[in-house]
Write a structure and sequence with these properties.
Fumarate Reductase Cytochrome B subunit, disordered N terminus, about 200 residues, 8 helices, mainly alpha
């Protein structure tokens, strides 16, 4: 594994394991976004969203998950450490991102696990995109239910539609890179291993 650039203390505490809250929030975020993407894009293509009741219910649950995600990132010590990996805006973090890009151009995948770099940045961009789309969906939902009036429904629909396309492209890239890591035998899927994380803490 290459030498970690920046954030040595927080990285040494986590090692190669994501904290349990990060894992469980990631599971619910991925599941919710996947369901919303499938039903939303089907609705865009056909003009009618399938399982619309479930689409709105999962959408509201996803908003709660995203809220809890941001709450954990800003209000808890482990979350703030992960926040630095998701948005590596310091000089050392940006150097790590550029190093990952350089190595990717030479067909070398970035190291997995909690660290500042390109994978963390792409997770952060995905979270921001999901937050924007979820917020637009919530405002649109409230508009349809008469919670507020005078809002640009057309603009909100465009944010939902093109935001879903952007999320779908990021989702494909995310799954594609995860599959490449799996093919070369790197333990990327441990972010979904909730049992191991709980056993390690007990």
């Amino acid at each position: 594994m290459k030498e970690e650039i920046g954030f040595p203390d927080t990285h040494s505490k986590m090692g190669n394991e994501w904290p349990f809250p990060a894992k469980i929030l990631h599971v619910f975020l991925v599941a919710g976004v996947t369901f919303q993407l499938i039903t939303g894009l089907m609705g865009w293509c056909t003009g009618r969203i399938p399982f619309f009741t479930w689409h709105t219910l999962v959408g509201r649950m996803l908003i709660l998950v995203i809220f809890l995600q941001w709450l954990w990132l800003f209000c808890f010590a482990q979350g703030r450490s992960v926040l630095m990996y998701l948005f590596p805006v310091s000089l050392s973090g940006l150097k790590s991102v550029l190093q990952d890009v350089k190595e990717l151009m030479h067909y070398k995948l970035a190291d997995p696990g909690p660290r500042a770099g390109l994978p963390g940045l792409m997770h952060g961009i995905f979270l921001l995109s999901a937050t924007l789309v979820a917020a637009a969906g919530l405002v649109l939902f409230g508009t349809f239910h008469g919670w507020w009036t005078g809002l640009p429904i057309g603009l909100l629909l465009q944010i939902l539609r093109w935001g879903a396309v952007a999320l779908a492209l990021q989702w494909i890239g995310h799954v594609g890179m995860a599959s490449l890591h799996a093919l070369i035998g790197e333990p990327l899927w441990r972010i979904f291993n909730l049992i191991h994380c709980r056993q390690k803490k007990s």
